[in-house]
Amino acid sequence: MPRSKKKNGRGGQHGAVQPFSDEDASIETLSHCSSFSDSVSVAEEGGEAEDTAQEDFQYKLKVYIDCTVDKSAKTRQGALDGLKTAMATKILYEFLLERRMTITDSIERCLKKGKGEEQRAAASLACLLCIQLGSGIESEEVFKTLKPIFKTILNDGTANIQARQACATSLGLCTLVAEDDILDVYATMECFESLFMRSYVREDGSRPSLNPQTTQLHTNALLSWALLLTICSASHITAIIHKHLAKLPRLLESEDVNMRIAAGETIALLFELARDVDPDFDCEDWEPLCNKLNALATDCNKHRAKTDKRKQRSVFRDVLKAVEQDGDFQTETIRFGTERMVIDSWVRKRTYDAFREFVGSGMNFHLQANEFIRDVFGLGPPVLIDSAALKAMKSSRLERHLYNAAAFKARTKARNKFRDKRVDVGEF
Predict the structure, then answer these.
(1) Strand segments (E) across 243-349
(2) Taking the chain (428 residues) in consecutive chunks of 10 residues, what is each chunk's mean pLDDT?
């Protein structure tokens, strides 16, 4: 019997994602009432509460998985979003390991039969599943099932544009995580090239006529292509430089600010990789390129939005430094738990931005606990913090808070006193 036709409490047709029934609630209430008569220690109670919370959470995830095959598009969408949130904020390796093919089947079905938003959610969920499973045979199995579907949607000009945009982004990260053959990586890069090259300004200076949605598709394809550049061999990077470095600056003339920024960051990345391969690397059109980058770093075009100009100037100042000053990079420090990670190269930045796009606010948690992501950034095994160290951290934070509060109070008093003196000055 197909899962969409089941009538039991956990499968088939769900009006909405409801993890608990009234019966479950009454059983839970009875168990809580009876627990008062049990003579258990506080530690045991805490352990039981934690186990119960874990069971409830896993039950909720199972309901979400069942609901991904529901007849209602709204219910399927809610289930996909629920699974995405869970995977972005928790480590669920063991739970997902035994259910990976069931979830993969659901993603495949939603990609093939769903509409725009549902397809977008399914594509994102595929990435999060690969991030959870890490780089191994399990994620390879998932990706082998989904890769042909991603590519079909991506290359289908009649497919929903939102679905194509999502597939462009998800195909890039899934390839980075789960592709086991470098030749297949290069083939996927060519797939991305066939898209973003359509945004190149022509040699006669004329611009292709593209709507904003299509330009966003090309931007996503460019960013995924740049992500895969970070794992290319030296010989392939050399071939890419000869093929694309002279043409990529044409994207800097795009009317779309996101495309201009993506192109600028990709050029900086390509220069960094080129200098890694050959420290004496020299670009033939270096001076015209620097002039173009400088114009974007100081852009004061009146017809462009202020926020766009501000964002663009900031990025292109860094891009110009990368091209001009032999790979100079503005470092950024990411703090998570008791650790910190330095983003000190364009390779590291592109990789970090790609993962953060999917896990969002859960990025710091994944940096702390996800062994695969820690391995990608060379952070070693997860750091275990004992209760004494955690208590010391909390104490120092409390001390800083109290100090800052006292300093703020003192500043406020001083300013009020100064204002009182100004008020007392008589008028002439």
Answers:
(1) 332-336, 339-343
(2) 38 40 35 38 58 88 95 95 96 94 97 94 97 95 97 95 97 96 96 95 82 96 98 95 92 92 96 92 86 87 71 90 82 92 95 96 94 95 66 56 65 56 42
Backbone angles phi, psi at 176, to 5 degrees: -60, -45
Contacts 24+ apart (CB under 8 A), 75-82: 75/14, 75/15, 75/16, 75/17, 76/110, 76/114, 76/118, 77/117, 77/118, 77/121, 78/16, 78/17, 79/17, 80/110, 80/118, 80/121, 80/122, 80/125, 81/121, 82/17
The sign of the CA dihedral 50, 364, 218, 185 is negative
- 74-94 burial, b for 16+ CB within 10 Å, e for fewer? ebbbbbbbbbbebbbebbbee
For residue 8, the 8-state DSSP code is S
Residue carrying structure tokens 């990411």: 334
**Dihedral-angle region of residue 290 (phi above 0 means left; psi in -120 to 50 means alpha; beta otherwise):** alpha
Q: Locate 111 and state its tokens.
A: 């990609």
Altogether, the residues listed in the chain come to a count of 428
Short-list 173, 91, 176, CA closest to 370:
91
Question: First-to-last CA distance in the chain?
Answer: 94
Name the H helices within 114-202: 116-133, 137-155, 161-178, 182-196
